[in-house]
Amino acid sequence: MNTYLVGGAVWDSMLGLRGSDRDYVVVGATADEMLAQGYRPVGKDFPGFLHPQTHEEYALARTERKSGKGYKGCTVYAGPGVTLDEHLMRRDLTINAMAMPVDNEQEPALIDPWGGARDLKERKLRHVSPAFREDPLRVLRVARFAARFADQGFTVDESTMALMREMTASGELEHLVPERSWREIDTALGAQHARVFFEVLRECGALAVLMPELDRLFGIPQPAQWHPEIDTGLHSLMVLEQACKLSSDRSVRFAALIHDLGKGKTDPAEWPSHKGHETKGIKPVVELCERLRTPTDYLTLAKLVSEFHTHCHRAMELRPATILKLFEGIDAFRRPERLEKFLLTCEADARGRTGLEDRPYPQADYLRSAFASISGIRVPDLIKANPIPKGESSGEYIKQLVHKTRLQKISDFVDQYRVSQDEHAG
Fold first, then answer.
1. Which of 301, 289, 299, 294 is nearest to 343 (CA)?
2. What are the beta bridge partners of residue 77?
3. What is the pTM of this model?
4. Calculated CA dihedral for residues 124, 78, 185, 160, nearest 10 degrees
5. Rounded distance, CA 90 to CA 127, Å?
6. Distance CA 3, CA 26 (A)
7. Which terminus of the chain has a smaller tally of CB atoms within 10 A, N or C?
8. Using CA atoms in the order 365, 368, 370, 371, what is the torsion angle rounded to 10 degrees?
9. Which tens digit of pLDDT belongs to each residue from 161-202?
């Protein structure tokens, strides 16, 4: 029975990075032997165990093959007869198919039967063997690795990209379980260069399968005076890139990516104009999120950004009543954190344009200040100053009183802002 460190912890150590969980594979053992040593079994699909003291994950060396559509599970064989090389051969990428012995000093410090060290040095993401295609989720995993290591110059090897194209063309990705796809997408959104994930998916054709509403935007023109980059799909990726600079919140990054899906609904005869794309985008946002089974907060923010992002861009032009309606529409009074996410996404949209990446976005601070002017309103103080008339419905009276007070304070804020602007101009 021999234990090896495998996966991310190996290549992280070789790159001088930290962060990956430490995963181990055990060769020459049975499940009963693991249990006898106090390991706790975990998972349903594979024979995995948690160490009794460290709680790190240990798995028996195994071979596996896909079983049926959906790839919810695999036919697995794990036992003392499976060699380390056999186990490593069925891993996805060569950089993931290296191992370091834990308890056998007679073995080499690095076991690398598939050239992972070479690919690590050459910054290549390359599949290990034809077994790669046994799980179509690996297409998304390669794209995720490309995003994670983009700043270190990693690229997908052309042989692997060709295989990913074949897998996509064969229809294998259409049978992926939504939860598995979303888990990869969500993890990729956490990468600083998340844009690369979607670029790789588009290059191999997978984006059209997984997110056709987004893929449809590429090739759709926008007015050059507002969008020097012209292409709507390119703009969406640029907005995501800016969102990654502004926020680590994945729901913000996701909303930034899909905020313009409504432009995919524009009649080509109307191009490059996209009148009404804000509300047209709500339906495809919902369809995309329901198909991928995204969290509710991701869906909610994406819908609100689609519907109201141009309101934010025109903030200084809005009437006080419209500003108040905007705050109410995004439920800012009950969820002020949502307002901040909304403003960050809109700022990313404004900056996600060629040559305008560093342009100031005062609209966000304007709306933050407008909201601050009414956030201190307290109902008990209002009622004390404006007692409920006899015979009035207290609920309706208070509702109208709060609305009226908020509107007045926003009006005062807008007036003061415009006066200050006039004085500054003068």
1. 301
2. 63
3. 0.91
4. 30
5. 10
6. 5
7. C
8. 180
9. 999 999 999 999 999 999 999 999 999 999 999 999 999 999
